[in-house]
Amino acid sequence: MKRTLTKMIVAGAGILALSACGGTSEDGGAEPAPAGQAGGTISIITVDPSNPYWKAEVDTAVQQAEALGYQTTTAAHENEPDEQNRLIEAAINDKVAGIILDPAGADESVAAVQKVVDAGIPVVLVNAEISQTGLAKSQIVSNNAQGATVGAEAWAEAMEYEGTYVELLGKPSDNNAQVRSDGYASVISQYPDLEKVGEEIANWDRQEGQEKMEQLLSKNPDVKGVVAGNDEMALGAINALKSAGKIDEVKVLGFDGNQDAVDAVKNDEMVATVVQPIVEGTTMAVEQLNNVITTGETGVPEEKQALDCVLVTKDNADTVQDFVVTE
């Protein structure tokens, strides 16, 4: 059966530098499309396109928007609310037709989204949500709790339900970090012989993941497992374990489903990862934003929409390519 995740990744690193080049209004902003028609510019504001997950998000958004007849601009806020505000203000000044936003924090982004709404510009959120409804036209996220649960169950089985482990946590302002950690804990707490002996915040970053894992290993040299809030931190942990000569002794769990992590699963360096359907979610986000621009409605009944994640183990790793799963 083919899962409904359409492969929409655009080749070429230059995609991130795309900018609008159409007509301009007298005050220098992009000329908005006539009401009820596709056209004009869609601003795509993401987190960090150096991370393969967010690169897939922005590449998909660009391809989908341009296929629908829009120009696009892309920018990244690096999870910094002040930078997000600056980018939002720039998009408003440019009179864009709509905004696709991966927000910089659930609470921190409410005011920024409110500013877009006050300017009369539709905004759709993807990957992360904000702590208020009724502002964004849609909030499309992965089912992080479900993904963490299935990932933790596979990891616990690989651990044979016993042993010490450590945890690498994502950026605290991103509510996905806590949701995944809670999901892991909900499963692991059922097995009393699994004992957490340390945790560190590594901010979704591979280099930080490696550094924090090195610190955890210095305090817990006999640790048997690692659960990480995303693949980049898990891959950093793997680098640290390789350097310490312990990669064959420690079971690692990741989350996102990026290709390096899938390859690590194939190579027995990672027990499992969990594919977030970011291609599907971003495609939906652009389609719903286009619906709002052209019809005034998203075309779906709910603002908040959660898509289930897919567990990836060695048994099905060959079916995963660029966040797309066929099975």
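Next protein, fold it too.
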Amino acid sequence: MPMETAAAISCLLMGNVLERFPRLKFCFAHGGGSFPWTLGRIQHGYDVRPDLCATRCQKPPKDFVGRFFTDSLVHDPLALQFLVRVIGEDRVILGTDYPFPLGELEPGRLIQSMDWAPPLKEKLLWENGLEFLGLDSSLFK
């Protein structure tokens, strides 16, 4: 699943989908799969082999980071720290993997366990999800 998710993100970027449809929203499961960890290599391919990688897009892949969301379901504190650093604290949403059996037994537990200030935890636990859905947080207070 991580490779397939990374391939899907790369196809959107290299296929110029986000540039052509800027209001379209995406959230990718599995913390964006292997995409955050291979972004440097994807960018390098765009830079040095545009004939293979950049056939339909005019903007580098790194320019699109922040234009899509990922979930937080990575099962590892170091991986979650890296994900938030690469994708951005405003673009990571609580992931559960429900109804599949590979999710957290207690959704949000990893986020809660992180040594982060409450405002960042709140972003990941619910605020970013509301942003993705276009919902006003005042409806839930």
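About the second fold: The chain has a mean pLDDT of 93.
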